[in-house]
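Review the following:
>
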Amino acid sequence: MNTLRRAALAPARDAASGPRGELILDRFRLLEPLGSGGHGTVWAARDEQLRRTVALKRIPRVRGGSKSDRRRIDREALAAARLSHPAIVAFHEALADEDAYYLVSELVDGDSLAARYARDRPDERELIAIGAALADALAHAHARGVVHRDVKPQNVIVASDPAATGARAKLTDFGVALIAGEQPLTQTGDVIGTLAYMSPEQAHGRPATPESDLYALALTLYEGFAGHNPLRGATAVATVKRLGRAIAPLAFARPDLPRRVTAAIDQALDPNPERRGSVADLRRALCGERRVTTTARMPVLRTSHRREQTPLGERAQRLFAAGAAAALTAIVQATLLGPTTGPIAIVVAASAALLAVAIAPRLGWLALALAACCALALDGRSGSAILLACALAPTVALLASDAWLWSAPGLAPSLGVCGLAAAYPALAARIGGVAAWRRAALAAAGYWWIALAEALSGRRLLLGVPRGALPQGAWRDSPAAAFDHVIVPLVSWQRLAPAVLWALAALVLPWLMAGVRGWWRATLAIVWATALIAGTGYLARRSESSTTLLVLAAGTLATLVALSLSRPRLRGPARTGVP
């Protein structure tokens, strides 16, 4: 039911159908028109009997009209009456007189989500909260045998005061809902819904299912995150041609979003309904929940067995984690254990790391880290073992929920060997599918690994060994000496300032490049890379370190990575008149 904020919709076109102040059914006094459409006019009205403000939907009786009109009104009332959820507009009652039918519902103070998209799109956190509320609402409806069939931004109200309404957003308008056990209003082959938010099966005239609502909800969220509806064309014909086609992954448009969110939305937009999962799966991904909570559900329209799907992105992450862990293990074997190991031992260790992390990313990686530290300690280099642990532990703490990135900071020292260490923040910013602050943490961890790698190897990779730090021979056999002569000099403000700079650089780059095109994009990339190199050089001089490795190549690489960071976002929803 269209209970939308007064400013969000145009006033009712037919003022004569219910002038302000008129008393309807000797009970409802019309206050203000909220909007009108093909199925009637919605008014804000005062219920004089119960002394409350409500939304009154007035649907005129049509002389000679078909019985399906009355059946549609009864269906909307029946569907709404089955539901009682904070994220669904509350239905009060259905009434009629000689001139019209009336549906009375809760009046929600807020804007439609469509109006928010057109004016000022919700930020990431708000849109995730809206999506979670709508997923809860649909799960409630599906458990009671109701499929909405027309989920879209126009049918979502974003509450002005969530605390007062009980939910961040509310789903409305069950006028075309499908109810389990009831005779459908339409025959098989009829197309019900809104074209630009329609699932492929609905577009082909097949019955709508809970998976159809899931598809429409995911498409609604995709539009909010990406700034455009990927199905909407310039004309209705163009939109029809796009129905059922694969949609570009959301991470292409928003690489800054958490990976769990983009993967869940992409899965829910699968053309095959059997592979979409459920609205509960989408809600868990939006909220970051890992454990599955099962609830009893009524059989809804049809039953099907769904296989758990592992998105391709998760497989790629696992392969990346395994490969990075194997490379890191080989480097540790070759540089820290040195002459005590040969090529065969390095290959065996790297292969074991690859297999262990591929099977169990977290446990495998932690086992490898513990084994490396123990190997150094047993070899008489307990000081080196302490430094290695100091490098690995903060990474696990900062990126606890993204185990596939635990070995990624190892790329920073590798770039340092080639004189390209200052380009690492651009690569950290390039990581898609993680929260923005985790990209910042990844960049800071890369700098920390460089600093400790310089102390462990004795080579200059960026700023060199800090003043006051003793050579490795003075501390590698003593944890206390390693702490006093390496860790303490490294945790001074002068030496940690580049970590802060790198974290900020990785944090702002995706936002800086989003939606920018052409020469402005290239200019911003060059300015960002120049500021990064210059800032790192300035902090190096403040810490009395030379910057011989901060060469032009690092700035060039950082610029190229920045340019490839993300595709430009398309403009907001087009106003083409396509439903």
